[in-house]
Amino acid sequence: MKKLILTLSIAAISFGAFSQTNQIKVGIKAGLTLPTISANGGANAFDGPEPPDYKMNPSFYIGGIVDFPVSSFFSIQPGVTLLNKGAKYGNRYNLGGEIYHYDGKVNLMYLEIPVNGIFAIEVGKGKVLLGGGPYYGMAISGRNKFESTITVNGSTTTTSGDRKLEFGSDKDFQKDDYGVNLLGGFELDNGLNIHVGYGIGFRTITGGNRNFYQEKNNVLSVGFGFSL
């Protein structure tokens, strides 16, 4: 995946250098993310508990892009984005008469490098934008805020915490993430634009200390941008 993104970035620069009729543009973007985590894996005596019930955890993103035109209606856009992924979660299960209930929120901050191909269709005083492409992300920080209760023989004990997450093959989560982005939007002739996106993670981000199920990032986003 890293080699693919590097190759596409070099290709984008080459296309931009040879473009005679279109101007290379730079832009900024920011907005709302609605990330969640998809989890797979069943519980049995050997592989541990069921995955948590993950839900969207609203957060933010901010970044920049460089638009290298290939033709009058197609361009390649590498960029850099700082965005928060993760999810809210909860679960409840009965283990030998002991009732466990827990919920919380995982925040995973990534520095992400997307390389997208964008089709621009002229409509009135602007352009409809459609496209997508691969991304590579690197986790730079993370926290897990949680509250859990254990009920035994009618007596309930509650605990809560806020823990800094560790990244690595044998830690809480993997450091690398990669997948594809799907994009759409509308850009005015003055460079202002509104856009929506959906990132689909291919990488299993679950760390080695929780290897009884697999988790992947998914991120819905909406925001505004400006290019010149």
Q: Strand order, biggest sheet?
A: 1-2-3-4-5-7-8-9
Measured by DSSP, the beta-strand proportion falls in over 45%
Order of helices and strands: HEEEEEEEEE
- Tell me the major beta sheet: 8 strands, antiparallel, barrel
Query: Treating each run of at least 4 consecutive H or I residues as one helix, how many helices?
Result: 1
Q: Kindly provide the radius of gyration, computed on alpha-carbon positions and rounded to a whole number of angstroms.
A: 21 Å
Share of helical residues: under 10%
3D structure, described in words:
Helices cover 7% and strands 65% of the residues. The protein has an eight-stranded antiparallel barrel. It has 228 residues and is mostly beta strands. It has one domain. A hairpin with a 2-residue loop joins strand 3 and strand 4. The longest helix has 17 residues. The chain has one helix and nine strands; from the N terminus they run αβββββββββ. The radius of gyration is 21 Å and the shape is elongated.
Q: What distinguishing features does this structure have?
A:
mainly beta; 228 residues; elongated; eight-stranded antiparallel beta barrel
